[in-house]
Amino acid sequence: MAKKRPQKKAAGAPQVTNGEVPVVGAREPCPCGSGRRYKACHGRAAAHAVTELVQRPFEGLAGECDWVALRELVPAATAPLRLKGGLPEGVPSVTLATVLPMAWPALRRDDGSVLLALQNDTSSGDLSRDLADTLQRALEAAPGTPVAARRVPAEGPRLQDLLDAEAAFEPVVHTGFEFWVPESADGASPEVAASLERANEAAIPTVKLAGVDAAYWCETPEKNHLRWVMPYPEEKLLDALARLHAAGTSSLGEDTRLVGSFRAHGLVVPVWDLPSAMTAEECEKPAAEFAERLARALASDAPLTADERRARGGLTNRQVTLS
Q1: By the number of CB atoms within 10 A of the CB, which of 4, 47, 60, 79 ranks highest?
Q2: pLDDT for residue 173 is more than 90
Q3: What string of H, E and C letters represents the secondary structure of 49-108?
Q4: pTM score
């Protein structure tokens, strides 16, 4: 067998400071000076730490269900964010947005305000940590500067560490992405204008119901839908939905049907098909009545009947995992 050549210390490798090995590219020399590539040395532990999936990244934040909806279901929306300890000097506001032009992770506007995008791809299995890293960099960026994506270090704060837990989370759903361009601006750059036009063309009309939490009506060419992010434990919620489905009370009225559910960021999102003529406003009353029926079903501890077990199996078979 051939002998392994002795490893030489990599020339020009970033130096270790304070006993910490900085994060570098996977194929770059490890900063510890071992001569190995980062991914084969200290990057192993870092890669494991950042790829381990956090099932409920928004758990503990106010409005967890709406965070999930804005991440997975809603095309155009914003929500003001309040930081622990208040805003830094020179930052008049921080706003969460579903997406930003050119898929920027964040943007520090000319006036110093910050927009943080929620629907971007992330580098680790902890979406909360990725977003917190982007937010911190946006707060320190020069005004008028977008924040680039990067691989997030394994250690660092999460959104739960940066945001005020007492502040309400109040999303505003928009018909388009005009919120990208401040009212005070003379106009968007050609690149932003082109991105805005493409985004508006692809956006599905969406409305947040006012009478129940985290329920979103959307309009598609063939039929409308209601997608409702619910905070209950998955097994208990599926049991409750099965009880209602077997009893014929899982719909939202005539020509509506509970067709299945998504699983997204640790929560379940039941989905109803609606007639194309049924508006968001017309969903309000039946959705509130369904919420009352669901509460009673959730309170039941009785074993499922044979019909309810079959209904549950059908709902489970039609469940799709988004994240």
Answers
A1: 79
A2: yes
A3: HHHCCCCCCCCCCCCHHHHHHHHHCCCCEEEEECECCCCCCCCCCEEEECCCHHHCCEEE
A4: 0.83
